[in-house]
Amino acid sequence: MSDMKTRLNAAVFGEVMLRLSAPGREPLLRSARLETWFGGAEANVAAGLAALGHSARVITALPDNAIGDACLGELRRSGLDTTHVVRSNGRMGLYFHASGAMQRPAEIVYDRAHSAFSLMPHEGWNWDAALDGVDWLHLSGITPALGAAPARAALDAAQRAREQGAKVSFDFNFRPMLWQGREAEAGAILGELVAQATLLFSSAGDLARIMPLELTGRREADFDSSAKAAFARFAGLECIVTTFRQSRGTLEQTLEARLASRDGVIAAGPETLAGIVERIGGGDAFAAGLIDALASGTDHQTALTDALTIMAVKHSIPGDQCTVRHSDIAAWREGSDLKR
Amino acid sequence: MSDMKTRLNAAVFGEVMLRLSAPGREPLLRSARLETWFGGAEANVAAGLAALGHSARVITALPDNAIGDACLGELRRSGLDTTHVVRSNGRMGLYFHASGAMQRPAEIVYDRAHSAFSLMPHEGWNWDAALDGVDWLHLSGITPALGAAPARAALDAAQRAREQGAKVSFDFNFRPMLWQGREAEAGAILGELVAQATLLFSSAGDLARIMPLELTGRREADFDSSAKAAFARFAGLECIVTTFRQSRGTLEQTLEARLASRDGVIAAGPETLAGIVERIGGGDAFAAGLIDALASGTDHQTALTDALTIMAVKHSIPGDQCTVRHSDIAAWREGSDLKR
Amino acid sequence: MSDMKTRLNAAVFGEVMLRLSAPGREPLLRSARLETWFGGAEANVAAGLAALGHSARVITALPDNAIGDACLGELRRSGLDTTHVVRSNGRMGLYFHASGAMQRPAEIVYDRAHSAFSLMPHEGWNWDAALDGVDWLHLSGITPALGAAPARAALDAAQRAREQGAKVSFDFNFRPMLWQGREAEAGAILGELVAQATLLFSSAGDLARIMPLELTGRREADFDSSAKAAFARFAGLECIVTTFRQSRGTLEQTLEARLASRDGVIAAGPETLAGIVERIGGGDAFAAGLIDALASGTDHQTALTDALTIMAVKHSIPGDQCTVRHSDIAAWREGSDLKR
Amino acid sequence: MSDMKTRLNAAVFGEVMLRLSAPGREPLLRSARLETWFGGAEANVAAGLAALGHSARVITALPDNAIGDACLGELRRSGLDTTHVVRSNGRMGLYFHASGAMQRPAEIVYDRAHSAFSLMPHEGWNWDAALDGVDWLHLSGITPALGAAPARAALDAAQRAREQGAKVSFDFNFRPMLWQGREAEAGAILGELVAQATLLFSSAGDLARIMPLELTGRREADFDSSAKAAFARFAGLECIVTTFRQSRGTLEQTLEARLASRDGVIAAGPETLAGIVERIGGGDAFAAGLIDALASGTDHQTALTDALTIMAVKHSIPGDQCTVRHSDIAAWREGSDLKR
Amino acid sequence: MSDMKTRLNAAVFGEVMLRLSAPGREPLLRSARLETWFGGAEANVAAGLAALGHSARVITALPDNAIGDACLGELRRSGLDTTHVVRSNGRMGLYFHASGAMQRPAEIVYDRAHSAFSLMPHEGWNWDAALDGVDWLHLSGITPALGAAPARAALDAAQRAREQGAKVSFDFNFRPMLWQGREAEAGAILGELVAQATLLFSSAGDLARIMPLELTGRREADFDSSAKAAFARFAGLECIVTTFRQSRGTLEQTLEARLASRDGVIAAGPETLAGIVERIGGGDAFAAGLIDALASGTDHQTALTDALTIMAVKHSIPGDQCTVRHSDIAAWREGSDLKR
Amino acid sequence: MSDMKTRLNAAVFGEVMLRLSAPGREPLLRSARLETWFGGAEANVAAGLAALGHSARVITALPDNAIGDACLGELRRSGLDTTHVVRSNGRMGLYFHASGAMQRPAEIVYDRAHSAFSLMPHEGWNWDAALDGVDWLHLSGITPALGAAPARAALDAAQRAREQGAKVSFDFNFRPMLWQGREAEAGAILGELVAQATLLFSSAGDLARIMPLELTGRREADFDSSAKAAFARFAGLECIVTTFRQSRGTLEQTLEARLASRDGVIAAGPETLAGIVERIGGGDAFAAGLIDALASGTDHQTALTDALTIMAVKHSIPGDQCTVRHSDIAAWREGSDLKR
């Protein structure tokens, strides 16, 4: 468990989306209602960090209309620092979502193109101000996938953060759909970002996109060897982490985690999940948990195990954002059913 | 998987009801709200066929009021051909429904007597028009149970369909409660309908209502022997199919299916269901899946297995109607949890 | 009231949008819920015609995803002929909406750019098929505002309709926001469409965008003189119609209508509205009412008065689409409070 | 205002129905939800009396299923004595309801035929027990309209009540739709019930159904002369009362009341209603208010005025039942907007 | 199963609270809505007894405002006798509640201090009237924890009940949080109440609070020995009962029960619960089931087993109150999934 | 309209409550649901100031539980500075609310006693920190009514604010119910607070509580003379302001305002309100509007008129808090019905 003396001044940079979900187990738009949430890979990590007691700033761009206003309000409600949210041209990215059930998968229909964030020119960001006082910056591979301008902005941010001595975590989060038409350049762009990272969330398959790797198809071995190669190539990297999810439908899944450092590789899990409420945001919760633990100087094994539990707890919480506190870790492990 | 070159011009004949469901796990009328759905054994089959890509016509009678209007709209929304829906005297049949939970069974309170459909005189139907172009007609044993007029109408429809070379499927669907006071004639009436069927959904117990059978209590053996007897008696019958459901409460059940043809008997399953969302309409989904597959010339084993999977998937979908598409079969079997 | 012997085979061409409304009088996204509707100027007219007993086809393009599926279902539920709805690339156009109250105006945030409809190349439409059998085509000025391709498609449709002897109605519906960056060409494009129209919905200010007019600022006189000029220029024009709305906030408004033909000008109203439920779709309801009446050969004065009443009744109906039937006109005028 | 020393032991006899209402201003079944209420002319009067501090018993028959259970629970929640509710064969009578708006009338679709109450044989009621201790019985003209058995039962009840010295109030409440096929006998049946009444709610037109009257079309004069004739014919009658409603749509209406006794005629009102929330149950609230006042020995003029105000207040309360207390009368007249 | 000839005239004495629950799996107040229920340990037992066919009176104090009115109505809706509910000064006790999920525990925030019930002076209760005709009184250890006045009132009630020959059941229900500041006196007060009880619900740990006991940590053995000691000390005690719950999170739990009489100890269970809907009120349902069975003279083993099943069924029913009927026991054990 | 160059660093000190409202026009707890809002006189002013572009800090105490967490989140969502919100012992103050309708008043049931705020010892506040940088402090007469500690704290805050040169506004907001038992000291306590105010919201009747005044019953004259007397007594007072509300039920009201300075008295209004959505928070919106305008140096007449319009607009917005922006003033006056 992290020591709150080491409260981070964290920042994340990325797009926030409005999620429009069908109620309960209904298909989309059957009963003329939608439930709304806001989320995005990076903002989810920020919310997770705020719930764990850190200061967490969201650097993003929102449309200057009532939808952007509502998003801003929700970010504030989540306890996030929104002083560096820019209001600009473009729309609010959104996605439609219908829960799955049993072995029927949940369905997501993205509608995020042409968002204010993705349209923002890279010169539009003021990194001196936005990163002032920040000691940890979190980015993800979604941002460079949204276009050349966000890609450049992410790199600018990472470099600026490193210059001021901040740690940089990068979640590879490779989304082929978003890279359509720009597949050729993906490797180079992502490689530049990885080069700035001190903490990297990525699988062996992800790493194979930015450097030549021979993969065997054996999950753990591939991760270990690719991590080793990554450490050799990227001098700033301190840890590489990944999670493995095995699905037996929407209700029952198993999670495992693996962390490589220059000292070796450790593993955590499996966490067996039953009666899953929400799968979205699980990886982001893991990232928040790990950043929290590593920043507190927790040993790697405890950090990895706690982060995996936080990820597990997140599967019981509806919505994109993680609201898990440190005290929830023990409660989960005890399996008590009522907290008065 | 069916070949869409063989798109059916299917029709069903039967009553559609308004379902009034308590929200969530609540008992009926606890919180002054009801959720509404439309359904009926035959219309559910039609909806299932429409979702699988076929043209599906619903031949029914609806009251000429706002409730009938709403029902008509919902049938259209489900993609059904409503050009032969008649508006007539009588009320909308309806049923109240409260979900069960754990081992507490769901509760249904029927309120379907005196419906427009059941009051419709048998001469009121225009089969020449209603069955024009139809190559598959689906009926169920509920219709003759609703009264002498619907019984006669169902028989008229079946005979007309057979005359024009259409296939006729008949789901035995024996409901003792509906036959109260007419038990004595049930066997003869149902027998006449079975005599028109090419595809029959029935258990051994069902068949024993229309012909003398010696049953042993062994489910599979009884089905096989009664099917053999049925083939002997009913020259037009091509397939007899049944499903077996084993319940361990409302959440956990097991499904199996068995299909007899003049070439022998095959089986499919078990499909083990966990976390069931909706049990209603499962059998109708199975019927739609089997008709789809058989009409496409799929081999019997694949047809039966796919139909059983479609039935399983239906248990994850709220409401009476089946919206399963062919692509959902594979997704279910993979057990993936998210479809972007 | 129209004579149902003259049932139209109407068609409309235009974009359908998903509307996302805040519940009740809430601001957008305050309570994490949205209510959904589908609508669009042309589809609203089609729905109005269907409610009045006509066959009404919607020619549009929808995205090939679950949102498009839901829209298609809703159009069918409204009784519309969707056999010529195309599924294509692009997103679902949508708009967010929060009701106003008292003198606080309702708020609409459009998010319709890059829709499947607007991205559809003009060669993508098959007018021979889509307009087959159609005797009335309705278009609006929103379609050409959505881009060069939709503008060309609208013109193609209008010309094709006129060639086969169909009437063409055109609602000027000028939206400056949509024409941004294409203001210069708006006049010419709209003029070409007006040239195909037999029935035109437009104000004097609208007409001044396509031909030189000297307006005095006196509403009625300007309409009369501009109509006269339009008749002189556009040989095919039979009627020009407009409505005047005077708002005293969201609850209390006054409606008037004016119709010019080559025989002169007539007026209807004022209709005084109190306790308005929904303002959106009022003009489309008026258009549907007038097309219905004119197509039935009703005299102009009755047609205009009835159409204005239908528009008034629409203000009592939530949602974009008009569901007013002929019998509702008399009930409204009687002011009875309960229909058993 | 009534003196609570004269607390009534009132009873009512009549059918209770389940009301299924569309939410807000929606048409029926647009958004797959219904809101539920229970009501019925006589039960509404009983609820009104209970709210005013009297003991009020509902004598009715309910189906022996979950819907009947829920109805029974709601009657108890309203503070009614349900010890003489019978559970019997038949269904729950129900009605569908959609609010009107502006000048668009509300819509009611009745579905009450074959109810447990209407099917109850007249010998099934045990009047000795059911009316034990009762000093006021309220009936309405709806009950005899439901069939010969309910008609006979109502008469039995009225005679039994009179024998034990109880007052009997009868609300004529003539519903032509319910008398279809029995129009010829309506006058005689209703006349017998009027003959038992001490307090009669009826218009001149109502009275003309049971005795020959020459009406002039002038509302007040016709009421006065018909009342005079009724007093001449029915020796037990003490008061005849009527209300006049003038509708200017669903939101704005005017109410007046008129009471004839053997001493002459008095009037109350007009009460001008604006922003009406619910029109259903208004007349029943008036009846409860008048019974309350007359039973307390309040002078006729005050009684009539207070009853009319209670009716007015009821128009601000959603649902069928009246929950107005004595203190609400003054608050209404003051027009204060907030009660802390 | 109890014999209804032995219908109890039961009474309970205790506080009723308003429960404010977050919808679904949401955290508290995320979506600006709360769902409401009424409950309290003793009222829950009363509701359970009423559902099982007994007369059940709730003796409590409610605030004299709209919240108290609503509570009173709900108690009546549950079929309870509310003729001895007092309206007095103070507030409505309430508690906020958010469902847990998976291994994340449910959360309860109590807000019950200063309630009308807890503020009621002990002389305020009229036990002669309130217990008139009562043959079974149920109390719990929550009441004395609420303050000196409720403690004294509970003791008065118990003594009065015993004097008139009624049975007294007492549920130890020790809540340390409520005894804060009065821990020292808890043992003595609870001991006095136990001394009045004929049926006691308590664990070995509970008993150790009122008498010196040497516990070994072995659940069953400790219960057996402590029960033996209690029988030695409390002459009136006939049965001591306890349940053991083993939680594996909110969804999966195991229940067992143990009953000691002067004849020995018997056990029931385990009942394995999967897919739990609601944990609150489980123990109260068990108490109601056991009282029902014992009062009917059912043998102890059947009584204990049935009570445990009723407790299990309650876990499938949302809300605090038990609505299980005798027929539900068999249905649960069969595991059927649909009751038509 | 205020000039944003003079952005205030405002702070308010007072209690925030959770509001639990019945949905729509329902009575409390009829349909087992409540809608939630947070509000409080001072926080409402802060929210109003934030919406108008100022920095607004809420200084308050909240319970350290999930309800307090939710309140904190909502305050942040409203854009308020919550860095000086203290978490302490005690409960969340709350109030239940049911909308009125027509002339039936809304109903409020307060349940705010024993709140964390009211229990906070006056030494618990750190005014140096909490008021650091603050140039405007707003207080109300509710705070001293909550107890001696809050009264002392309010005075401490006011004095500290004056010492650092900040303006202090004080809303008299006299609530007799809250002063029960402390009526004798109310005048002295309130007088001390008025002595610190530069801007005072109070009626003549309010002022008469703190100083001897001869009132005539003529509203305007009494206000003018009492203001004169107040200026004579309180040297720091710059403006005294009041509003007059005339209610014709819940829907139709008239507002007027009056402002006295040492230069004389001016008036604004009447604003006639029709179709009121929410009355709560109207006065707080007025206060926010006036503070905004005066702080910007707007002339008194414009300031008063704009504040009254902001108060009017607030009546169209559900919930306690004011979200009116400057641009809404003009929109309201235009009476436009739709803002795209």
Automatic annotation (TrEMBL), chains A, B, C, D, E, F:
Molecular function, one GO term: kinase activity
Domain named Carbohydrate kinase PfkB: residues: 10-315
Record key words, sorted: Kinase, Transferase
Keyword Ribosomal protein on entry: no
Tagged with keyword Transferase: yes
One Pfam family recorded for the sequence: PfkB
Similarity comment: Belongs to the carbohydrate kinase PfkB family.
Protein name per UniProt: 2-keto-3-deoxygluconate kinase
Source species of the chain: Glycocaulis alkaliphilus
